[in-house]
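Loading example: each entry is read as two labelled lines plus one structure line.
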Amino acid sequence: MSYRADQGGGAPKMDMLLGSDAVAYGAKLCKPDVIAAYPITPQTHIVETLSLMVDKGELESQFVKVESELSAISACYGAAAAGSRAFTATSSHGLALMHEVLHWFAGARFPMVLVNANRAMGAPWNIWTDQSDSLSQRDTGWLQLYCETAQEALDSVIIGYRVAEQVMLPVMVNIDGFILSHTMEPLFIPEPDEVDTYLKRYEAPYFLDTENPLSFGSAATPDNFYNMRKYMARAMKTVPRILREEFTGFEEHFGRSYSAIESYRTEDADTIILVSGALAGTSRVAVDRLREQGVKVGLVKLRLFRPFPGEDLIRALGSSGQVLVFNRAVSFGAGGTLSQELRAAFYHLDKRPGILDVVISLGGKEVFPETVAEVVGQADQLSEENSNWF
Amino acid sequence: MLWNVTKVEYMHNGHMACPGCGASLSMRHALKALGEETVVIIPACCWSIIGGIFPTSALSVPALHVPFATAAACASGVRRALLAQGREKVTVMVWAGDGGTFDIGLQALSGAADRKEDFLYVCYDNEAYMNTGVQQSSATPGGAWTSTTPGGKEMDFSKKDMFGIIKNHHPSYLATASVGHPEDFYAKFVKAYAKRGFRFLHLLSVCPPGWRIDSQDSVRIARMAVESGIFPLLEFEAGGEVRQTVIPENPIPVNDYIKAQERFRNMGAEEIKALQATIDERNRRLLQHA
């Protein structure tokens, strides 16, 4: 499962882990009371590893081996309502099957963390990565984080619970199917007692309590319903601030620093690539190569998608000439999902960069550093009105 | 028979059920048997409304409303969380209609029953989608009018056998009950309460507007369902055989039950005769071990 490497000289030990296993270790460290899961490629390793941990007695969670993803998220919903920390992992069609309960979860203001291995939606069948599964869940009220590395995935699960349990909204952590889930990477697994100090046991402010009987989710009049949704929007509004605090707190505890977006070699860039997930790694290599050739190109990695960090992006991209938005999900008839979000964020400003909608990959279509370099090279010929397909 | 039923009420006035509603009467007596250490899981059904509109509640036990297809899975999660927290003694009860049980919730129900999840699943079967205005479900009996079977449902009298479906999942306890026979009803809830593992109660739940009867006739019709044999009162415990818990002293022909309800107005003498034959044959096979 994992290989520990002693680097000698008293340096911290690193483990060599599959992305899926990194996620499983992250979940384990958070000690969820209930894990409910159903197999789906390429997520299956996560729950296999977790069930092994439970089987070996390393993890004292109740593991519910449900008969569908709809039941997986529903069991998590029941657990959260009873005041417990819950965890599940899924992908693609599994996430789509959960859709109704994703809404219900956020609407009920229960926290949890779900890890989604990003994979295309059929038809036709395709098991490889893109973001059409998670981005089509953008309006469900879940926070969405996207990871470039397995380390980030592990850490995001832990940070995810900290944030979810403060804002009382669920968190979806996304990793690229196969690219992250099925590749190995050296990383640090935090010590359990360190995580225990950072992430306390979940104390639900309200739950199914026979001493204090409450009804959850009962029908609400239009006015009450409207207000509940208004409070939900307000809670979402507090996320960027809370996330900043949490990233700082996490760095103090574990020494690894994160932010909602990350800029790379953007200082004097004319062209900036906006990208999320593991594709950021590939694009970074391309940026380095292009820089060597004197091309003024940089990169902004989007870690947080919901809530959309518009202000951060305006600061990071506002002074560049053009932004190449690397989309891996399309709203057919309206273009790349990420491009739409970015355009909306800039709409109220007079000065804004050219925003080019690039459909870089779907269904696992390979993107090499050369592919990225080619797109950057063609940037002047790309359309600003239409999506750019290759 | 003497009753040892608590005077404490866990279901209160101000609820939103129709007059004569079998589902509200059932809930009142079910909770008396189960007591205050109970959590109720309610998928979409009449009880989504009967329980009260936010911020009111007609129940003094905690309730969790859940999406239509998910009751048994949500209950699994609640039960597992209670186990993890050391709150084992709390009873978890699903309270679902026939739509949420026979139709859209059947997959989650089968999954939970197969995993032997430790909770009580109650289906109050009013034999159609009553909350949306009386549409046919797979629990609607042959011949019955609903708003989607305006001429009466096809005259096929082999109603989906939920008792058999659950029995083949090997539950720890399984029974049918009706508020028309409250002593039997109460005894079964008490028995289900005392057991662990997956337990299932199928209640026939009279619906005056959906069945086209007067509200004061609810209990009378509920009794007739048992007396005519169309809804026999049964019980099955793990390791045992199916047992008929109430053998009607004065059995009646199903014709009396059918004629008492306007929803069956399209059924003629021939169809009722066929229904009677189906019932006789089914009950003979069902109880051959009794």
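Residues 22-286 of chain B form a domain with the Rossmann fold fold (CATH 3.40.50.970).
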